[in-house]
Structure formats: structure tokens, C-alpha cells
Amino acid sequence: MSECVLCGRTFSPKLSLARLVSLTKIKRSLICPQCFAGFEKITYANACWGCGRKQSGRTLCKDCRRWQQKGYELLENKACYVYDEPHMKKYFACYKFTGDYQLGTVFQTDMRQQLEWYLKRKWLLVVIPVDEETYQKRGFNQVCGLLPQVKLNSYLRHRQKMGRKKQSHKNRQERLQVPQPFSYVGPMDLKQQNILLLDDIYTTGSTLYHASALLHEHNSGKIKSVTLAR
Length: 230
Fold this sequence. Notes:
Elements: E1 2-3, E2 10-11, H1 17-21, H2 23-27, H3 33-38, H4 62-69, E3 78-81, H5 86-97, H6 108-120, E4 124-127, H7 132-138, H8 142-146, E5 156-158, H9 172-176, E6 182-184, E7 195-201, H10 206-216, E8 223-229
């Protein structure tokens, strides 16, 4: 018997042959089938091509049109699941805010599948950082926990190390008005290397676009992004 970390319900994982040979399925037993069915998947055909927001069709959403108007090259973010639903919000509350590192295993396969196209083409993977205070309390970067066997580059640092107001505590307007939060610690010349930015959640896009702007300043090539949720 297992106990679901989201709802506390006890359940018996099915021990089929596929389950016995599939590490992914064993990891997903941290969450009961009822809760896992509550996660809302995003498909390519029904997502904004600029940010990955779930919608009807591939048209550009209002938020992405605003980024274009500001002169940004869209990141064409790909996301696996919808963030704004109870099961995913509870997942992140357990994973990030109570620091349950094991929950990172639940979506490792989903995230890895999103990277395959970029890995085959030798894109450089750059992770969005957490600030020093958060890292000391939690003990891990949540994005790294989703991709433990993938080489991720830490070319960005938070300028404000302690006392920073977290993104989750800001409203939409506050997030959009945040000045550049990062400093750059990677190679001074990226030599037109194509870069894939990795984060856990895409909300307004401001974090990813700040990161993108800094990388472009150091002669990057194309920049796209992948997140677990949108």
C-alpha cells in the first residue's frame, strides 16, 4: 500500500510486468491514480505557440502579443501541464514550498520528453536559478530535481540573495514590473550557441524573458524555453 502525498488516500499500485520494468511508473506511485488523473495535460495542437498556454488552436495569445509589442523575440515555450488547477497547485506546494524532493520524480519523464528535440541538436540547456535564501531553506533547485540526469548549465544568478519577495507572493502587475533580477556568470561570448531555458512554471513570462535578454547580451543564438506547467 502507498499513501498519496497530495490527498493522503491509501492505494495499491498495480504490479504489472510493465510496472516492474518501468522506473517511471514506480516513481509515479507517489501520487494516487485519482489525483494523477486530475493533472491537465497540454497538447501541441491546443496551445499558444508563443508561451504554451492551453487554449483552442495554435493562435498567439494576448500576453504573447504584448511581449512582441515590447520588441521581444517569443520563446515558443513548451509546457507539459496546466498550472491553474487544484492538483498541480497542490503538487507545487508540496514539492517547492515544503521541499519534498522526491516529488520531482513524478514528472521527470514528461520533462525529458520535451527536451529530446533540443538535445539531439546540441542546444545548450540553461536553468533558471533560485536565490541563495531559498536554496538554503529548500536544499535544491526545483528544476534540477525534475531533470537529475541531464546536464544543466547555471549561467544565471539572482542579484538579490536574501530577503527577495518570491514570485509566488507577487500579483501579476508586480511580476511584470520587476527589473532585471539576474546577473550573468557564464562564458562572456556564447558564440551564437542556441539555448533552451528551463523553468518549472511559466506565469507572466517575465522571468524567462529577463533571462533571455541577458543571454542575448552575451551573443547567444536562438533562445527557446520549456516549463513543466503553464
